[in-house]
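PROTEIN DESIGN WORKSHEET
SECTION A - STRUCTURE
LENGTH: 413
TOKENS:
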């Protein structure tokens, strides 16, 4: 059984990929409860690296492009600050998990085994897992070349397609809804190693979840929608909704995956007239953690609570600066609602008195814009480029994990 260091009075925690708003939230919550928190990211301007709740911060190499140095940098941080617990907040979780043997035995990595993370992240193998768990999911076709992609989208009058390894509303192919026509089929190049999934377009709003899991049991659950989104992709306002169905579905998927799983899981569903259909899994935190109370997160990470903490419907937070910026991008459409929200919805940074960290948010955007120009991709995609995992073998991974990864690829539907 996993015994997490948070059962001690004071824990020394490393939070990685601190650029994320939800990473900063985790830092604030654990730091405010007296835990020693250290943040790390691949560039110095990361907003989470400048929170007043930190005991220290560091810059690491890219887990994607320089995995060996990234692991070495993490080990340096562990030694310097005597770290007990690592909480990954993005896809560096895959690299840390694949290289778990190269981290000290005294450190708890709050992430599942690499094999299980890979099974969840690969949308094709996720499809098989969800069906096994008895959770509703749309009919899915896996396209491994351009010909099969075209045949798949021709099957559905309204379709929705994306790469098996994708995230954050990036690279979506559809002929329906606000993203219709944003990407052309000619720009999609599926292969056996990088397939695409095609599904009939399911009407209804997206419903997201965030869960902490300890020894196969959900210890906290937040189900939420995003009333405001940046460019119809990533959420910038978050409203908790009922968790009855998603809690059941999450536990079913965990039971089918690994009854000893420990880590953070986030699922996306579509609510089609009250019927939820599973779409994908991010085996890491998402903005739902922002809606949890600090003490709930702390206890959920240990598994000490007998029943899962469930965020009550109606709890709401927003990234006010992003909401305002989005309103001015489409003022006629958003400004009246935004002016109401700015005075009635609590900002994610409200009450923390940690404004210096948020002052570094523009540095993140500047960093993303610079990367975007160099790589000729959207800012959101560029911002995550050095910390994502797209199914490739990881340098230094064990032969066992390499074999499992190959098996995951072969078991696609």
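SECTION B - SEQUENCE
RESIDUE ASSIGNMENT:
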């Amino acid at each position: 059984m996993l015994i997490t260091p948070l059962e001690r009075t004071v824990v020394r925690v490393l939070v990685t990929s601190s650029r994320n708003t939800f990473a900063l939230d985790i830092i604030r919550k654990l730091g405010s409860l007296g835990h020693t928190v250290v943040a790390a990211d691949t560039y110095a301007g990361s907003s989470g690296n400048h929170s007043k709740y930190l005991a220290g911060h560091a810059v690491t190499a890219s887990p994607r492009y320089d995995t060996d140095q990234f692991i070495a940098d993490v080990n340096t941080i562990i030694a310097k600050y005597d770290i007990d617990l690592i909480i990954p907040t993005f896809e560096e979780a895959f690299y840390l998990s694949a290289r778990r043997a190269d981290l000290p035995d005294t450190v708890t990595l709050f992430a599942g085994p690499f094999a299980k993370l890979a099974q969840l992240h690969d949308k094709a193998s996720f499809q098989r897992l969800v069906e096994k768990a008895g959770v509703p999911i749309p009919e899915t076709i896996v396209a491994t070349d351009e010909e099969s992609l075209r045949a798949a989208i021709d099957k559905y009058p309204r379709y929705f397609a994306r790469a098996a390894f994708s995230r954050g509303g990036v690279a979506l192919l559809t002929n329906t809804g606000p993203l219709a026509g944003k990407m052309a089929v000619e720009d999609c190049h599926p292969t056996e190693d990088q397939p695409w999934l095609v599904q009939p377009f399911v009407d209804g709003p997206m419903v997201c979840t965030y869960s902490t899991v300890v020894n196969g049991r959900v210890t906290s659950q937040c189900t939420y929608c995003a009333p405001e989104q940046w460019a119809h992709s990533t959420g910038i306002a978050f409203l908790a909704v009922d968790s009855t169905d998603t809690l059941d579905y999450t536990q079913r998927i965990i039971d089918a995956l690994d009854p000893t799983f420990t880590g953070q899981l986030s699922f996306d569903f579509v609510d089609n007239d009250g019927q939820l259909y599973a779409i994908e899994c991010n085996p890491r935190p998402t903005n739902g953690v922002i809606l949890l109370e600090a003490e709930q997160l702390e206890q959920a990470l240990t598994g000490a609570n007998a029943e899962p903490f469930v965020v009550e419907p109606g709890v709401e937070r927003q990234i006010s600066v992003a909401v305002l910026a989005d309103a001015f991008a489409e003022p006629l459409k958003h400004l009246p609602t935004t002016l109401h929200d700015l005075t009635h919805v609590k900002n994610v940074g409200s009450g923390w008195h940690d404004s210096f960290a948020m002052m570094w948010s523009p540095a993140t955007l500047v960093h993303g814009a610079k990367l975007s120009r160099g790589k000729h991709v959207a800012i959101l995609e560029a911002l995550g480029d050095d910390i994502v995992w797209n199914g490739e073998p990881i340098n230094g991974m064990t032969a066992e994990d390499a074999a499992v990864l190959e098996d995951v690829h072969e078991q696609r539907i």
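SECTION C - NOTES
The first helix runs from residue 21 to 32.
Residues 139-201 form a domain with the Dna Ligase; domain 1 fold (CATH 3.30.1490).
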